Amino acid sequence: MTNGKNSVRHSQTAQSGRLMSLDVFRGITVAFMIIVNNPGSWGHIYAPLEHSPWHGCTPTDLVFPSFLFIAGVAMYYSLKKYNFEFSRDAFFRIIRRVILIFATGTFLTIFPYFINRDYHMLRILGVLQRIALAYGLGAIIILLVRERFVWVATAVILLGYWALMYFFGGADPYSLKDNFALVVDRTVLGENHLYKGFGIPFDPEGLLSTLTATGTVLLGFMVGGLINKNGKSWKTPILLSAAGTVLVIAGAIWGRFFPINKPLWTSSYVLYAGGIAMIILSVVFIIVDIWGKKGWTGFFMVFGMNALFTFFLAGIAAKELAYNHIGTGDDKISVGTWIYKNICCNVFTEPRMASLMFALMMLTFIWLIGLILYKRKIFIKL
Questions:
Q1: Is position 261 within any domain?
Q2: Taking a C-beta distance cutoff of 8 angstroms, is the pair 80, 227 a contact?
Q3: How far apart, in Å, are the Cα atoms of 251 and each of 260, 267, 275?
Q4: 131 CB contacts (<8 Å, ≥6 apart)?
Q5: Is the pTM of this model over 0.90?
């Protein structure tokens, strides 16, 4: 956490040399993450706010890869001071951040039951854990491979993952039950420590698919290099949008053979989602960094400047609403359910709209806390 003189200096950087469009894009991504993770009722959600059941890609499926892509872009600037060369200082800085983010994710998984919990059934991985591992692996690859060859490392990861899935998977290698990623997670982590939301123990943030998630980070890193080279000129968004379009098309074509799939984080998904992230960033770049239209960005900057902390805070708030109850006996319901039924459903009779209202209320609550930090120039960096 930073404040005082350091925060003022950081704020001045954000207004001058900092790439504001990246902070805005990050803020948009975190805001959308909070919305899709906190509906009033999981049974009443608008289709674009739901994940694809298996193969396919909805707007919600673009949120997580966009965040990792943004992390990769930012990584270019954070590792530039080490000249992209491996050193003891760089290595320990990376490992320290990996441990901090992973530990934060584990804390969120355990919260609020730290004592009366069966740790033999604890899920080990998760969203923050994947961010930690993909960031760490991506950063180490960048420091070990020359900058101009990062694209080669990315290609090796994507093609290698496809080969592992195709040749070592079962009869239907890209299905829920026959994929090789599941075999790896069962062997290394054990079924008890995997996510149970798919009907069988299967983790969408598993170990093997973290390789391709790292590929998403590396795509972002290469975009960071493109932006650094071309600066705030029209060449930057033109190249970004062109490259993004090519990747979307390539991902869609590859997806006919290696389906676009978020839970498996397939290689085609990396290209497809990464390409869309490039196009979105190019649009935000034009509006914010070239045209200078910044009046609308304040809301998203609050999330963008405290991204992981506000996401973590939303997770804590959601659990508090779920685990604290009102009433007794048959009338006992969670605080979150009470708010949804007695406030949101009274404002909107359409269940999906009421569910969305609950998510927006959660977003507003987290934003208000983030606004206090932002106004006080307190930026908590995990």
A1: yes
A2: no
A3: 8, 8, 8
A4: 67, 68, 71, 101, 105, 308
A5: yes
Both 66 and 134 in one domain: the answer is yes
Alpha-carbon distance of 334 to 324, in angstroms, equals 6
User: Is there a single domain that holds both residue 90 and residue 140?
Assistant: yes
- Is the same domain home to 113 and 167? yes
Q: Give the type of residue at 232.
A: K
* Tens-place pLDDT, residues 118-171: 999 999 999 999 999 999 999 999 999 988 999 999 999 999 999 999 999 999
Label residue 116 by pLDDT band (50, 70, 90): confident
Asked if 41 and 81 sit in the same domain, the reply is no
Answer for the pair 336, 322: CB distance below 8 angstroms, yes or no.
Answer: yes
DSSP assignment letter at 56:
B
Q: How far is CA 257 from CA 151, 173, 254, 267, 290, in A?
A: 22, 11, 6, 11, 39
Structure tokens belonging to residue 297: 């960005």
CA distance 218 to 72: 6
Number of structural domains found in the chain: 2
Question: Is 33 in the same domain as 84?
Answer: no
Instruction: Give the CA distances from residue 252 to residues 173, 225, 256, in Å, rounded to whole numbers and listed in that order.
Output: 19, 25, 7
Burial of 226 (0-12, 13-18, 19+ CB in 10 A): middle
Write out the residue range of the structural domain in which residue 14 sits: 1-50+297-306+326-382
**102 and 211: one domain?**
yes
Q: State phi, psi for 326 to the nearest 5 degrees.
A: -120, 140
Q: Are residues 31 and 160 in the same domain?
A: no
Answer yes or no: are the C-beta atoms of 34 and 97 closer than 8 Å: no
